[in-house]
Amino acid sequence: MKKFVCSTAVILAASSVVSAQQTPVSKPASCCFEQGYEICNDTYPAAYNAPARIDVQCSWDIFATASFIYWHVDQEVMQLALPQTYGGAVGQFLIQDFGYKPGFKVGLGINFGHDNWVGFVEYTWLHQITDTGTSTVPSDADYWFVTSWFNSIVRPTTVGSKWRMNIDIVDATLSRPFYQGRKLTILPFGGLRGAWIHQNLKINAVGRWQQIRVATMLSRNHSHNWAVGPRAGLQAHWLLGWGFRFEGDAAASLLYTRFTKVTHAESVNDVTVAFSSFKDYSVVRPMADMGVGIGWGSYFDRQNYHFDLLAAYDFNVMWGQNMIPKTSSRSALTGDNSEATDLHLHGLTVTARFDF
């Protein structure tokens, strides 16, 4: 009897051990995860930079973007005239008017199967005209000294100007968005930038020219260039929850730039009295841009599609774009070889993105 009881006890103990080994250990349920948004502690191993691109299901792996831009464009060394008496200068420079103008961007992207890379091509269009209007010389001055835009013997009493600036940019980049933290994603990117910048400045003046007491004078100035070169940058998303995020980005480009034609011409009463130009001038010019904004996005239709909105304020610097003063008559007379000056852009960018 004792042997039977002992045998039974051993069998029951062994069964308990086997049953315990076969019973799965319960784990806390993971949170619902949507790629491109914040993750839980146990979603990925902590050391792995997991992909963070937007990844819709049953899709073409393509996305399209459209942006409305409202940017301010200005350029250095755009002083038009200085009020002057026969005894010297008085007052402040009259400067070309600048302002905010509308434009747009359109883009197309694709998600590659190779290591979760993302390709993106974007076109930026910004064509603007600003008009300074006609300004009469102040009452305490005798005439306008028209800086570098006319010959020194010109002494107008009224000056006006119109500046046309056309900017077209194409960016093509590759990137791999990844998680740097539970609520922080990083998007490093690199690629190429192409740019076409055309500007025209026309200055009208009425006043004395040599022995002519009342003459209509016109200064026409043109600069056309194209540029191409590498571009690299970084974008960061701070995920706030409910689809909202703070976003910041910075990028730089180094472009081979070719000024195909830069001209300066002066006319008096429709007769050309001065002309200078140069063409096919090649140089390397840098560009830089930064932006900050807030966005919102969400998957829908069982993650088959994704929609995103972003409102940002962008800043751009394009070095050495103003080559026009180098062709003016006064620059030729004085041997002015100063550096070309810079072009600046900044303003609001509102972007919509659709992944499908």
Could you describe the 3D structure shown?
With 356 residues, the chain is mainly β. The protein has a single domain (31-76, 97-129, 160-355), classed as Lipocalin (Beta Barrel), CATH 2.40.128. The protein is built from two helices and 16 strands. The strands form two sheets. A ten-stranded antiparallel barrel has the order 1-5-6-8-10-11-12-14-15-16. Strands 2, 3, 4 and 7 form a four-stranded antiparallel β-sheet that branches. The longest helix is centred in the N-terminal third of the chain and has 21 residues, at 2-22. The radius of gyration is 32 Å and the shape is elongated. It starts with a helix and ends with a strand. The model is unreliable at 1-6, 8-29 and 332-336 (pLDDT under 50).
Task: Give the C-alpha Rg.
Answer: 32 Å
Please list the strands of the largest sheet in the order they lie side by side. 1-5-6-8-10-11-12-14-15-16
What is the CATH class name? Mainly Beta
Low-confidence residue ranges: 1-6, 8-29, 332-336
Q: Can you give the helix content as a percent range? A: under 10%
Order of helices and strands: HEEEEEEEEEEEEEEEHE
Please identify the structural class as seen in this structure. mainly beta
Question: What would the average pLDDT be, to the nearest integer?
Answer: 87
